[in-house]
Structures are given as structure tokens and as C-alpha cells.
Amino acid sequence: MSEWKDARPTRTAGMSAKEEILARVRTALAAPRRDEITTAQDVPRTYQRADDKQEVRTAPEKVRAVLVQRLEDYTAIVHRTTPSRAPAAIAAALGGARTVVVPSALPSPWTGEVEAELIVDDGSADPHALDAIDAVLTGCHTAIALTGTIVLRGDARGGRRAISLVPDHHVVVVEADQIVLGVPKAIERMGEDPRAAWTMISGPSATSDIELERVEGVHGPRRLEVVLIEPEPETDTEPFEQEKTS
Q: What's the Rg (C-alpha) of the chain?
């Protein structure tokens, strides 16, 4: 690490306040930071990594349970289902929506039971047109369990950013193999396409006014519903919970 010195220019007779301030700025700019990294050995190595034991050894069902808990903490509605029941769960999540915008490469089986009018996004709809659409249905790229974050890539399954931000109701489908425990693993997955446009969603859009009253829907969808597709149960001894809502 570099040596830090708090040396300041001494004001001399005839030096104006302006000259003193500028001298101090020049001194500050020339001085190294207290935490300046000078060699590779100075880099801290205690941060969490994508291959940590917690990430690689935690049972997948426990990771999914953590994700559900975090999402519900953010007031998102979670529908837990299986591949065979996913179309019905997606239709239920969309509820009474009359129009739904979808990305161009959304898997067709997902919309098999949707009764609403499906509008395949071709990039031409502006925010005013998207605002008139009831809901948006997208896939996702990664879901981070510990932070309850849904990561969308701006592609033909996640859609361009506008369609996931403008409509008031967002239904996103998360598949079991897209879920990771922590942020480092998610960053590793995102690093496969570093030039992509990424959108990270942690619950419905919300903010607080000057009186700290929560206001939803200011910067994005007011309602977020997640359809979590989990593996089919191995036995029929315990019925699978098709849908769980908060």
C-alpha cells in the first residue's frame, strides 16, 4: 500500500483565499488514495466467489425456497408449478388481462392456455402503445435467490427493456436451472454475454415520497408475478403445490 500524507499548502502572506483553495485541490489530486492498490498482492481476496461451498453444495430445492421467500418479501406473487402444469399457471398469473405483449422467441407451450390477445413485440411499439397493453409475459436469464432478483437479458426471450418496464403487470417465467444462490454466480452467468442489455428486478417497482409513504408503479410494473417451474415430483405420495400466492 502507498504511504498517505496529509500535507496541505501553508497559506502565505499575499495568498488569496482562491489561491489557497486551488492549491489544496492540486495537493489532493496529486496525493494517492488511502486504499490505493499498488500490486496484485494488495488486492483483497476475501470476497464471495461463484464457486463458494454455499453456492455449489446447497440443495437446489433449498435454493428455490430461499428465492420464493425473498420474492414474497418484496410483495411479488409466486406461482410454483411443474413443466406439465406451467401453461395453466401462466394463464392464471395473467388473470383478466385482455392484451399481453411477449418477446418474439417466448416458448409457444407457455401461452397454450392464455386467452388474452398476444402481441409479439417487433420493436415498433413506443411507450404510449405499450402503456395501453394490460400485461407483459417474459422469460428470464437468471434468478438470484439471496437477493430475490430476476435478471432479464435483452434478447428474444427476455425482451427489450421497454416491454418489461412500461406495462403495469409483469409475469416472468423462471425455470429451475436458471436459479443461483448468490450474486457472484449470477455475474458469472451474465459474463457469457457481457455486451448484452441487462435488467435486474427485485420486486415490483416502488419508491417512497418525502413522507416515506410507499408508492408502487412509478418506475416500472406495479404488479410482479413469478411463475417458478420446478422439476416434476419423483413420487405421488405428496401432491405438488401447483400455485402459491402471497
A: 25
Per-domain boundaries in the chain: 55-229
At the topology level of CATH, where does 55-229 sit?
Rossmann fold (3.40.50)
- The tens digit of pLDDT for each residue in 9-59 reads 666 777 788 888 888 888 777 766 666 666 777 776 777 888 889 999 999
Evaluate whether 160 touches 125 at the Cβ level (below 8 Å). no
Classify residue 239 as left (phi > 0), alpha (psi -120 to 50) or beta. Answer: beta
Distance separating alpha carbons of residues 157 and 152, to the nearest angstrom: 9
Q: Nearest CA to 152 among 188, 202, 108, 104?
A: 202
CA distance 119 to 34: 55
Dihedral pair phi/psi, residue 227, rounded to 5° = -100, 110
| 3-state SS class at 103 | coil
Share of the chain above pLDDT 70, in %: 84
pLDDT of residue 225: 97
User: What is the 8-class DSSP label of residue 171?
Assistant: E
pLDDT tens string 178-229 = 999 999 999 999 999 989 999 999 887 777 777 777 766 566 788 999 999 9
As beta bridge partners, residue 206 has 216
pTM: 0.75
Q: Chain centroid to CA 171: how far?
A: 14
Which phi and psi (to 5°) does residue 189 adopt? -65, -40
